[in-house]
Amino acid sequence: MTRFRTLLAIAAALAGSAATASSETALELSIKDHRFEPASLTARAGEPIAITVKNLDATPEEFESKALKVEKVVAGNGEITVRLRPLKPGRYAFAGEYHEDTAKGELVVE
Amino acid sequence: MLGALIIVFREVIEAGLVIGIVLAVTRGARGARPFIFGGVAAGALGAGVVAVFADALSQAVAGRGQELFNAGVLAVAVVMLAWHNIWMARHGRELASELAAVGRAAVAGEKSFVALAVVVALAVLREGSEVALFLYGILASGETGAALLLGGLGGLALGAAVSALTYFGLVTIPARHLFAVTTAMITLLAAGLAAQSIGFLQQAWIVTALSETLWDTSAILPDSSVFGRVLHTLIGYTDQPTQLQVIVYVATLAGIAIATKLAAPPPRAPKTVQAPAE
């Protein structure tokens, strides 16, 4: 059953890969010297969000946010897209798991 | 150094617990060990490959590759665990009965060892790729290499200790009950993995239904803490599950329990002919 669901999911993903929602708020975030730049992002509530995370360091990082329920590896000099559903107003913290002491940031939704 | 130790340890707990449980499940079955350690080795090798291609993977499928990969790996593990339980329900009696010679039990159990070896390999693959990336990052940056690397290796050693503790803890259970305990543990493990799998699909927006958070216990017991991680692996605890994750968890639990019940030969019935499960 689960296997079937995964197959369905993969099919759905392939079908939908070309289409990206135009109503998405596109945000950009870089990682440099194990810090997020900018450290604070702002987005409007109730709109889907896509954050492009560019890793300018040569070392990998894991973009992690309990609040946003995201856990995603970014390779050294790589980039990822983090998709978020429409959020309620609030502050959502995120961190780079491999360098938690310096890689800290937040998404402010208003 | 301590930071590196904790990061690596957090990652390897999951694989460590799975290996410990699987070793306990296959205790006394001669011939199981090579399968299990083969699974660990294959998983470690795969983890290295995944780490090398991490960027390509995350770029794949419109940036959804990582989530799909994780969800797929978890789903396969769930199927394998479910199959193992069902298989054991069918043949468990002859394996558990004290009359069965150990050697014969091993031959009979070989098929299900493969399933468990796959489960171990997948657990090591998933956790290992992140550890590999992390350690590679340390080496590549030459930040403060030696101390961090030592911490990372310490984390790996602790993970191995978790495996050992799990195993020795489980094997203190009298053999008569061990089977029932490990069956229940595998069912819970599978349900937790199924919920995680769905979580990844929701993260990638592939599954959009019921993605509201059902409860938030992150203040009481964060699943990033060591104890939270242990519970996360053993029973699938998550501090902020989505509605669908909880539904999938319960459905998997019920599904495997029912399938196992159906597969079990009726008590004291004359020997029934069973079709091989293939």
- CATH topology of chain A, anyone? Immunoglobulin-like
Q: List low-pLDDT spans of chain A.
A: 14-21
Largest sheet of chain A: 5 strands, mixed
Largest sheet of chain B: none
CATH homologous superfamily grouping of chain A:
Cupredoxins -  blue copper proteins
User: Which architecture of chain A per CATH?
Assistant: Sandwich
Topology pattern of chain A, helix = H, strand = E: HEEEEEEEEE
GO molecular function (chain B): ferrous iron transmembrane transporter activity
Keywords (chain B): Membrane, Transmembrane, Transmembrane helix
Family (chain B): Belongs to the oxidase-dependent Fe transporter (OFeT) (TC 9.A.10.1) family.
Transmembrane segments (chain B): 6-26, 35-56, 68-89, 101-125, 145-171, 178-201, 246-264
List the keywords.
heterodimer; A: 110 residues; mainly beta; Immunoglobulin-like; five-stranded mixed sheet; 1 helix; 9 strands; B: 278 residues; globular
Walkthrough of the structure:
The complex is a heterodimer of chains A (110) and B (278). Chain A is 14% helix and 46% strand. Chain A has 110 residues and is mainly beta. Chain A has one domain (24-107): Immunoglobulin-like (Sandwich). With 278 residues, chain B is mainly α. Helix content of chain B is 77%, strand content 0%. Chain B is built from 9 helices and no strands. The radius of gyration of chain B is 20 Å and the shape is globular. The mean pLDDT of chain B is 85. The chains are: A mainly beta (110), B mainly alpha (278). Chain A binds chain B through residues 1-3, 5-6, 9-10, 12-14, 16-18, 20, 57-62, 66, 69-81, 83, 85, 97-98, 100-101, and chain B through 3, 7, 51, 54-55, 58-59, 61-64, 66-68, 71-72, 75-76, 78-79, 129-130, 133-134, 136-138, 140-141, 194, 197, 199, 201-208, 211, 213, 218, 222, 224, 239-240, 242, 252, 255.
